[in-house]
């Protein structure tokens, strides 16, 4: 059991490949491209070669549609799939505040320092994409 | 090996080659490569980080100009290693670090360097690490490097045979265990190396997953995004390999459901 006082990297006997992660990995949601969109950005996790590209279409400051493409480990792909579901319909300002904590909550597991990079890749890609879009304005 | 002749030319100054590949386990014929290097007037530098801990290495036999190895891959401490160099070459070289013990005489305008090896050992050395590495060498020698190679061959042969029997497992490198050291890199089709190593970790099996610090080899030569590597040493047994095989089957169960 992971308790409050324990290191968040502690995994104990917790199963990393929970049913929902494997499901999102095997049947990714929102997998594909959006031809015309405001945000389109890709990032690479150089330690393992995971690649994620995120596409976001906006309407009145809200995320109307989000899709992703990429390849990599189950954690990075499931995380991207879940993230696109999670951000749909949400306000861009809210999304910009998302952090590691939300990714952990979303995946429902505690990731160690190595796999954290896999889990964070999709959010990192999205945030960078937003930054690039805002710089362009 | 067939390309070495074409790659090394009269324009080559230094040939730097790994003795044993940390990805494929291939034992390179560094003696022959060194001969070609010398025929072209180049210096031969050998990376012995993977060979010194696993096979008998004789720098005079290999006739290399330089050879390096690291303590942490041979049961020794981290942060220490050794550089061998031919005496005449080291004498010709200037120090690259300055500090205590590397000078014989210092004046306002010029200095005289100390003799070898102190010329290259400026300042207070890592004393504990030095003693630790020395003990590691003694210990490995007490086991015997020929015996070590023979035992690793026995394990590698068994591992290659067992891994190749598993469906969807792709093993990289040469088939003959005599031509390689005790590392076996592989992939399970459709499952990322990090996912494989995470499940194996849960099964109590420690492997490495990723590019193994050899990204061009993994991505451009093997055409893989990453690989899983199992490494053996003399403390491993055939039972460990049986456990690995069981672990791989567990990985397939988790991801493929069979």
Your description of this structure?
The complex is a heterodimer of chains A (about 140) and B (about 260). Chain A is an alpha+beta fold and about 140 residues long. Chain A has a single domain, classed as Sufe protein. Chain: A, CATH 3.90.1010.10. Chain A has 5 helices and 3 strands. A 3-stranded antiparallel β-sheet of chain A has the order 1-2-3, with helices on one face. In chain A, a hairpin with a 2-residue loop joins β2 and β3. In chain A, α2 packs across α5. The N and C termini of chain A lie far apart (about 50 Å). In chain A, about 35% of the residues are buried. The N terminus of chain A is likely disordered. Chain B is α+β, with helices and mostly antiparallel strands and about 260 residues long. Chain B folds into 2 domains: about 140 residues, Type I PLP-dependent aspartate aminotransferase-like (Major domain) (Aspartate Aminotransferase, domain 2, 3-Layer(aba) Sandwich), CATH 3.40.640.10; about 110 residues, Alpha-Beta Complex (Aspartate Aminotransferase, domain 1). Chain B contains 9 helices and 10 strands. In chain B, the strands form 3 sheets. In chain B, strands 1-2-3-4 form a 4-stranded mixed β-sheet. A 4-stranded antiparallel β-sheet of chain B has the order 7-8-10-9, with helices on one face. In chain B, α6 packs parallel to α9 and α7 packs across α9. Chain B is globular, with a radius of gyration of 22 Å. The model of chain B has no long low-confidence stretch (mean pLDDT about 95). Chains A and B meet through α5 of A and α7 of B.
The proportion of strand residues of chain B reads 15-25%
CATH class of chain A: Alpha Beta
Beta-strand content bin of chain A: 15-25%
Instruction: Specify the CATH class of the largest domain in chain B.
Output: Alpha Beta
């Amino acid at each position: 059991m992971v308790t409050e006082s324990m290191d968040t990297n502690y995994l104990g006997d917790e199963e990393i490949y929970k049913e929902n992660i494997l499901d999102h990995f095997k049947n990714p949601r929102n997998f594909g491209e959006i031809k015309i969109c405001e945000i389109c950005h890709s990032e690479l996790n150089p330690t393992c070669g995971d690649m994620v590209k995120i596409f976001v279409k906006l309407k009145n400051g809200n995320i109307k549609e989000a899709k992703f493409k990429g390849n990599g480990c189950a954690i990075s792909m499931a995380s991207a799939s879940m993230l696109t579901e999670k951000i749909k319909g949400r306000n861009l300002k809210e999304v910009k505040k998302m952090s590691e904590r939300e990714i952990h909550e979303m995946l429902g597991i505690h990731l160690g320092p190595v796999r954290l990079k896999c889990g964070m890749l999709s959010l990192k890609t999205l945030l960078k994409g937003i930054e690039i879009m805002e710089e362009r304005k | 090996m067939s390309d070495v002749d074409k790659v090394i030319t009269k324009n080559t100054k230094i040939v730097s080659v790994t003795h044993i590949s940390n990805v494929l386990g291939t034992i390179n014929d560094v003696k022959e490569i060194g001969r070609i290097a010398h025929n072209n007037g180049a210096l031969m530098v050998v990376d012995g980080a993977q060979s010194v801990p696993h096979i008998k290495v004789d720098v005079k036999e290999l006739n290399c100009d330089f050879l390096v190895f690291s303590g942490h891959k041979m049961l020794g401490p981290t942060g220490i290693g050794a550089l061998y160099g031919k005496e005449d070459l080291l004498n010709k070289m200037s120090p690259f670090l300055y500090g205590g013990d590397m000078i014989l005489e210092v004046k306002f305008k010029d200095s005289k360097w100390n003799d070898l090896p102190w010329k290259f050992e400026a300042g207070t050395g890592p004393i504990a690490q030095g003693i630790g590495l020395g003990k590691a060498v003694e210990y490995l020698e007490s086991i015997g490097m020929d015996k070590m190679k023979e035992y690793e061959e026995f394990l590698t042969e068994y591992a290659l045979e067992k891994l190749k029997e598993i469906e969807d497992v792709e093993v990289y490198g040469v088939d003959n265990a005599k031509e390689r050291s005790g590392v076996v890199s592989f992939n399970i089709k459709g499952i990322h190396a990090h996912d494989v190593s995470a499940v194996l970790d849960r099964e109590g099996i420690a492997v490495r997953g990723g590019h193994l610090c050899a990204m061009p080899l993994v991505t451009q030569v093997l055409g893989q995004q990453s690989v899983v590597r199992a490494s053996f040493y003399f403390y491993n047994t055939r039972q460990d390999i049986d456990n690995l095989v069981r672990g791989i089957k567990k990985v397939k169960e988790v991801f493929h459901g069979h």
